[in-house]
Design goal:
36% helix; alpha/beta; four-stranded mixed β-sheet; nine-stranded mixed β-sheet; 330 residues; single chain; globular; 10 helices; UDP-N-acetylmuramoyl-L-alanine:D-glutamate ligase
């Protein structure tokens, strides 16, 4: 347990910080209902709809996570020039997000994931999306928009869901800007894009993604000694400064590439209902803490407690500073 006054001071400093989120934004739509019968047309349940809700997803969920703890979020992303794009834009504004670097496109839809839920369980998911890389015009517009706001940022968070925004050329331009200005950069990675992430400060994969980055398949939860071995293999393969490996029920492990030291923090979750968006919470709170003056171990400590809260709720969720402090020191 870290000293309370120090952690409280870090969390209090969130209010003064600005973080730029670069990545793939989406809407998470939930259709809630109940099942009373099987369809006569096919052997599938018929869901009687009782409610529809829409939440921010992907990189937009990171915005929600950061705004909830007092960070001022800026988003650099691309959405469709469609009704869901308008809904997404309005939702971002409600969280106080600066959308000056949000690009609207006529050539792709706003990524939307629709989950049909019955009796608190997911029945099916329907995706509407275009995963192709940004075209040249979209990429040029996005880079120009980032260049216009980068000087005021305290950190940059790359949220890569593999929906086309995070490309090698965009990352090359972005990391050149951040390196020149000494801005901290974190990445929530897509397993196929590991070779993209040059010149970043920390990467935050889950264990499955970590294994895939080594060309391996995860089969069950390994022993701690095996996790440590694989973690250092990832650090060495990609020449990482820091690796924050999330381990589900085992918590998370921070690898410090410079000090050659790993730190294991066990999970703080009391019950796990839904891991949707948990990775967003981890990278959001870790990056927020670093921007607010934390060292990597303090940032991991704060992120670990935040993740323990969000996995206890269904769907993407976020925490408040008060909730976070009370959970850490209850």
């Amino acid at each position: 347990m870290l000293e309370k006054d120090r952690i409280v001071d870090i969390i209090a400093n969130f209010d003064a910080k600005k973080i730029l989120i670069v990545g793939d934004i989406m809407l998470d739509e939930y259709i809630w209902g109940r099942v009373h019968r099987i369809s006569p047309e096919a052997p599938v349940p018929v869901v009687d709809v009782t409610e529809r809700t829409v939440r921010l997803g992907g990189a937009a969920n990171v915005v929600q996570n950061l705004a909830s703890v007092g960070i001022t979020p800026y988003i650099a992303a691309v959405c469709g020039n469609d009704s869901n794009g308008l809904l997404l834009t309005d939702s971002l504004k409600q969280y106080g997000c600066d959308i000056s670097a949000l690009i609207s496109s006529d050539s792709r839809p706003t990524t939307t994931k629709t989950r049909i839920m019955a009796h608190q369980q997911q029945v099916v998911r329907v995706d509407s999306e275009d995963n192709s890389n940004l075209n040249n015009d979209e990429e040029v517009r996005l880079i120009a928009a980032i260049r216009g706001i980068i000087d005021t940022m305290d950190a940059v968070l790359i949220s890569d869901y593999g929906k086309g925004v995070i490309t090698p050329s965009l990352l090359k331009e972005l990391t050149a800007m951040t390196t020149e200005r000494g801005i901290f950069v974190s990445v929530d990675p897509k397993e196929k894009h590991w070779n993209y992430y040059d010149s970043v400060d920390v990467i935050t994969p889950n264990l499955k993604e970590g294994y895939e980055s080594l060309g391996l398949t995860l089969k069950g939860m390994p022993e701690d000694s095996v996790i440590v071995e694989k973690g250092w293999q990832i650090v060495d393969k990609y020449s990482l400064k820091y690796l924050l490996l999330t381990l589900s029920e085992k918590g998370m492990m921070l690898f410090d590439g410079g000090k050659r030291k790993e730190t294991h923090l066990h999970t703080m979750a009391k019950e796990v209902y839904d891991v949707t968006g948990a990775g967003d919470t981890v990278i959001s709170l870790f990056t927020a803490a670093i921007a607010a003056g934390a060292n990597p171990i303090e940032a991991t400590f704060i992120a670990n407690h935040a993740a323990g809260i969000t996995v206890g709720e269904i769907g993407t969720a976020s925490v408040t500073p008060e909730e976070l402090i009370s959970t850490i020191y209850e």
